[in-house]
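--- STAGE predict ---
source: upstream dedup step, 1 unique chain passed
mode: sequence only
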Amino acid sequence: QVQLVESGGGLVQPGGSLRLSCAASGFTFDAYVIGWFRQAPGKEREGVSCISGFGGITYYGDSVKGRFTISRDNAKNTAYLQMASVKPEDTAVYYCAAVPSSRVRTVQTACAPNGADYWGKGTLVTVSS
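--- STAGE serialize ---
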C-alpha cells in the first residue's frame, strides 16, 4: 500500500523557519521524483519544489527560491522541505507527491500541479504573528 505522510507543519512567525518531512512507503522511493506542493485558501495548488530520485537535481518555484531547500534521504524513504524566512503568503496546506522519474523529462516538469501518481494528505503551515 502506497503511503506518503507529511509532518512538521504548524504555526510559525514571519521570518521564522520550519522543516516539513514526507515519509514514504509502498513503492520504490528512489525511482520517483518527490515534490512539495501547496494550496492556500481560495487559490490553486502550486508546485513549490521538486527533487530527482537520487537528489542531484532540484527545482524551486520563483516564490520560494532562495528561502526553501528540498532534500531527501533514500535510506529512510523520507523527503524534507526546509522553510526559512517564511512570509504570511507561505500559509497553505503543504502536500508531498511522487512522480515516476521515467515519466518526466525534467524535475521542473514533475512540479506541474496535477502530474503526480501519489499524494499525501497534507500538513498545514500557518505563518502569522
